[in-house]
Amino acid sequence: MTSMSAKAMARRATQAANEVWECGGVGAEAGMNARGRSGNLTKEFRDGAALLVGLFAATTNWPKMLAAMQQAQLAPFLGALVSISLVVWLYDSLCLLWLVRRTLGHAGAPGGDSLRELMSLKGASYLINMLNYHAAALGMAWLLARRKQVPFLEAAGALALLSYMDILTVTAMSMVGIWLAPEFFGPYPELQTFLKAVAVLVFGGALSSVLLLQSSLDLPVLRKLRALAPLRPLAALKPARMLEGIALRAGILALYTGSVWWLVQFFGMVPDLGRLCVAMPIITVVGTLPISVSGVGSTQVLMRSFYAPFVGDGRDPAAVVDAFSTLYIFCGALCRLAIAAPFFRAIAAELKGRTGDDGG
């Protein structure tokens, strides 16, 4: 990809993102008041993201980081990253296919749930996802609601179910990581105890609540909860189907973890799987928070601490990790932009109510 094509793609992405953002809360009929609120939130988001980038830049040893980039195997790294991006796109689209057919397949209008349609939707969502994970999910929910002719809150509840299952898989993976790498927290064992307690509470609370909602108990409060549009997709799933979905989402987290394990080796690092199993859930959660763009600054600072032990050849660990995280984030963003490029104009037009195909 040439620098000119990357710049052109970035300009097109920015223009399309503006079109989507102007839809009032990513597709909702919010009107001028919502646009004003969105403008204020965008300014706060921009200021916070700039602060994180400034913090990262100010604490980076640039000469050593550039030297680490030059010493890395960049060609195979970029080839692997492109392959991983395509595999993740396909796998994520298959998860979306499973979700829509299991939760919305028997509701609303038929159609709108083919793999081709959902791959275009997922691909286009990468554009908004670079700015905010949850905004991308809302945009997909709004389009699914239109295509399936179901209430927006029901479609949003279906997509929230993915996040719900992600919480379960992330907490379970962190527990596995602590078991494999008990030395992760070094001289702070109380942090390990705290994380264990949080993981058990989150996992136990989330799992027990969903099993209660999906149970055959016919209590008045449960009937009211099951009738709520955002909870209908969750309540409609049988426990066996829920486990099926959790296994699928565990697969995507394992794919991300395995990808990092593979990619850091192109920078001369020797990864430890147990340490990655603790680090990846934390980095994944922080990366979804609306405090940075694509995790720039926020996840990079975490990687410095988490991945530093992977550098054992005498080089500055922070510089090597910074070299990896910078290329991983920015080149990964370009890969997602390339995936989104064929679809985001048609999706933006659909968000604004104009006619057009689905970008497939």
Helix content: over 70%
Largest sheet: none
Strand content: under 5%
What separation lies between the terminal Cα atoms?
Answer: 22 Å
Number of strands: 0
Query: What best-fitting shape do the alpha-carbon axes yield?
Result: globular
H/E element sequence: HHHHHHHHHHHHHHH
Q: Helix/strand/pairing class, anyone?
A: mainly alpha
Low-confidence stretches: 19-35, 354-360
How many alpha or pi helices?
Answer: 15
Task: Quote the average pLDDT.
Answer: 82
Computed CA radius of gyration, to the nearest angstrom: 21 Å
Q: What is the oligomer described by this structure?
A: single chain
Give an account of the 3D structure.
This protein has helices at residues 3-21, 31-58, 62-71, 74-103, 115-129, 133-148, 152-180, 189-213, 220-227, 232-236, 239-263, 273-288, 298-307, 317-340, 344-351. With 360 residues, the chain is an all-alpha fold. The chain is globular. It starts with a helix and ends in a 9-residue tail after the last helix.
Comma- or semicolon-separated keywords:
about 75% helix; 15 helices; disordered C terminus; about 350 residues; mainly alpha; single chain; globular
